[in-house]
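Dear support,

We are seeing what looks like truncated structure output for some complexes. This example has two components. We would appreciate it if you could run it in full and send us the complete C-alpha cell output so we can diff it against ours.
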Amino acid sequence: MGFYVFIFLSTKINKYFLVSFFLFLRQLRITVWSLCTKSVSYIKYPKACQQGIAFTKDGRYMAVAERRDCKDFVSIFVCSDWQLLRHFDTETQDLFGIEWAPNGCVLAAWDTCLEYKILLYSLDGRLLSTYRAYEWSLGIKSIAWSPSSQFLAIGSYDEKVRILNHVTWKKITEFEHPATVASSKTIVYKEVEKSPSVETERLSFPPTRALASSLFSTQSKYDVSQVPVSLQHIKPVADRANPKMGIGMLAFSPDNCFLATKNDNIPNAVWIWDIQKLKLFVVLEQLCAVQSFQWDPRQPRLAVCTGSSKVYLWSPAGCVSVQVPMEGDFQIVSLAWHCSGDSVALLSKDNFCVCYLEREEVK
Amino acid sequence: MGDWKTITVPVLSSDSKNIFHYTSEKKISPPSMNSQVLRLPLPSSKSMHSFFSAFCTEENIEQSISYLNRELTTLGFPSIYAESKGQELNLISIINCMNELLVLQHKNLRAQEEVEMQHLKLGSDMDHLQNCYAKLKEQLELSKREIVGLQERDRQLQSKNRNLHQLLKNEKDEVQKLQNIISSRATQYNHDMKRKEREYNKLKERLHQLVMNKKDKKIAMEVLNYVGRADGKRGAWRTDKTEARNEEEMYKVLLSDYEQRQKQLLVENAELKKVLQQMKKEIILLLPPQKQKPKERSEDGPVLSDLEEDIGELNKENMWELSCETVREQLTNSIRKQWRMLKNHVEKLDNQVSRVHSGALNEKDVISREDHELETEKLELEIQQCKEMIKTQQQLLQQQLMSPCDDDTTLLLQDCYLLEERERLQEEWRLFREQKKNFEKERRSFTEAAIRLGLERKAFEEDRGAWLKQQFLSMSTDYKHSENVTTPSAFLGSCDQDNQLVKSTSQRKPPCMLSGPVSGEPCQTSQYITRNSSSAASKKPAGDSKPNQWVESDKEETE
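Here is the complete output from our reference environment:
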C-alpha cells in the first residue's frame, strides 16, 4: 500500500524530535514526533516531488515544498523546535525541486521541465530573483550550488549548463556539451581496454581468486586522445516523455575549482570544467554509460562509476581506473564517499564494498 | 613672225602628241599648251624630236624665245635676253635657266616621290587603324555582351536574394505562429492539468476516507518511553516568544551572511583599487617623457602634473578609505587615459620596429646611416690630426723650454729680450723729447706772437684813439656831452677784452701742455691765434686752420 520512509535527524539541535515521512498513495505525510513532549505535529500537503524537502547544511532549517489547490508553496521550518518560520507561495507551474545554498541563506526553487524557471528566495521568504533562459523547450534538469554559494549551476535539456552568480543572479557563462570536443586546451581521457597480460608460468590449478578475476575481467586504462575528439552521441526518440537528453548530473568540487557534468546525450562522457577559468578542462570518455559520480568531500577528486566493476578516479594530477577485486560480476551503480575522503563505498544492486584510498597519490 | 592661230584643243587627250605632230603651224594657244606641257609626262625619246619641234619651229623662233622669256621671267628666272640688247640671247643665262629648270624638275620629282611615300604610309596607317577599330569594335561588342550577361546574373541573384528574404520572413512568421500555438496549447494543458489535479485530489481524499474508515483502529504510532531532556526542563511551548526568537535567529543568520559578503567585497574592492593605483603609477613611469615632441610634451606636462595631483589626492583619500563615486570614476578615468597613451606609444614603437625590420627601408634612412658613418670617419680623422698637431706643438714647446740648457744662452736670450725692450723705450723717449722740444718751440713762438699781438694792438688802439679824438674834436662842435660817456667805455671794454684774451691765452697754455705731450697748442682759438699758430705749427698739415683737425693730427703724431 505504501512504504515508510524514516529519516532520523541526528543533529545536535534535533535529538529530541523524530520526523517521519510517510508516503502513501502518492501522498506524503510528514509527522514530527517530539520525544520529550507528547506532541505530534503534521506537516500538511507536502509535495512528493523529486526534491521536495531540503535541509540547510547546518541543519537549522528545513524547507518543504507543498502544493495545495493547484498552487505551490514553500514552508520553512526551524529544525530546533519544528516551528513554522515562513510560508509563501511560488510562481511555478509545478514546483519540481528546492535546494538550499550551502550558506543557508538562499533557497533555489525550480519548476517542472516544461518550464524553464528558477526562483531564488531568501531565508526570510523574500523573492530575490527569477531566472528564465528560454521558453517552450524543455527546461531545467538538474542544479548544483557551489560550496561557497558563489555560483548556481543549472543544467537543462538543451545540453547546456548556465552559471548564475550570487551577487546579481544573472548568467555569467554557459557551458556547451557538443559531441565534438575541439578546444585544444582540453584533455580528453579515453578509457581503453588493455588485454590482460597473463604469464603462462603462473597459471596454476585450481586458479586463485585473484587470477580468476584477472582472467575474466578486462583491465582498462586511460589514454590521452588528441583533440578534436568526437564522442558517442545519441539522439533520443522525440515522442517519448522524459527523454534521455540534457544535463542530468552536476556537481561542484569541494574547493570550488571544478564542476563535473554529464550530458545525457553523450552518456559515456564526464565533463570537468575549470571554474576559475570558466572553461572546459577535462573530458573522461568511458567505455560504458556513466551511472554516477561524486566528488571527494575534502579534495578535488572525482570518483566515477559506469556499471562495470571498475571505479574511476580523476584528479588534476591524472586519472586512473581501478578494478574492484571481487569474484564474479560486481556492477557498481552508485558510490558514496566517506566524509573524511579516505574511503568510498561502491554500491551495486545487491552488494557494496568499501574502497580505501591511501594518503599518497593513487598510482 | 608667224600668225598665232587659236585652235580649241581637247585638254589631256591622248592624241595630243599626234596633234602636236601634225600641226605645222603654231596654232595652239600658249596657256592651254602650257598646261598640257606641265601635265604630260616626259616624252619618250622617240617622240622627243617631234615634241620639241612642235613648240618651236624655224618660223616662230623669235616668238617662242620671247614667249619663253616671258614665262621664265614670270617664274622668277632671269631674262634670257642679254641685258642691253633686245634681240640677242644671253647664252649663259639660258644655260643657267636650263640648269635651274632641271634642278627644279629634280626637286619636284623628289617631292613627288616623298608625297607618294607619305601617301603609302598614310594608306598603311589607315589600314592599321581600320584593323584596330574593327578589333575594338569586336571587343566592345564582347564586353557589352558580357555586361548584359552579368547584369542578367545580378538580376537573377537579386531576385534569388529577395526570394530567400521572403522565405526567411515566412519562416520567421511561421515560427512566431507556432510559438503562439504552443503557448495557447500550453495554457490549455495547464488548465486541464489543474482541473484533473483537483479531481484527483478529491478522489484521493475520498479514497483515504474510505480506506481509513475500513480500518478499526488507526494506524498510528505511539511513543512509549518518552525521553526526558538532558537538562530536565520541559519542552518549550509554541508561543509568541519562541516565534519571535526564531525570527530573530533567522534574521541574525541572514545579517551575518550579508555582513560577511560585504566584508569580502570590501576587501576585494580595496585590493583592486590598490592594483589600479599601482598600475597607474607604473604606466606613468613607462610613458617616456623625452622621446615626445614639444607639442606632446606640453600636452603631457599638464596631464602629468594632473596625474601627480590625482595620485596625491587619491593617496590622501585612500587613507580615509572613501569609496565615493567621484573618486572611483576619477581613478578609472585617469587610468584609462594613461593606458590609451601608453598604447599609442607602444603602437608607435611597434611601427618603428616593423619599419626597421621590414625590407622596405626608407631611402632617407639608408643614406643617412651611410652619411653618418662617413661623418664619423671624417671626425675621427680630424681628431687624429688634431691630436698629432697637439703633440707636435707640445714637443716644440718642450724644446723651446728645454733647449737653452746652459746659462749663457739663457742670459743672452734674456738680454736679447731686454735689449729689444730697451731699444724700444729709447726710441720712444727720443720721440717724446723731440715732441717736447717742438712744443717748447711752439710755445715760445706763441708767446712771442702774443706779445707782438699785444703790442700791435696797443699801437692800433692808440692810433684808433687818436683818430677818434680827431673825429671827436672835429665833431665836438656839434655833439658835446652825449658821446663822451659812451665811447671810452667801448674802448675800455675792447681793451679789457683784448687783455682778457691775452691773459686767457697765457693762462691756457700751461694746462694744455700738462694734458699731454701732444696738445701744446691753446685750446681756445681766435682769428689772431690761428693765423699765428698756422705759421708756427709746422707739423700741421698745410691749409688746415680748423680746430677740429688737431685731434686727428695728434693721433698721427702718436702713431
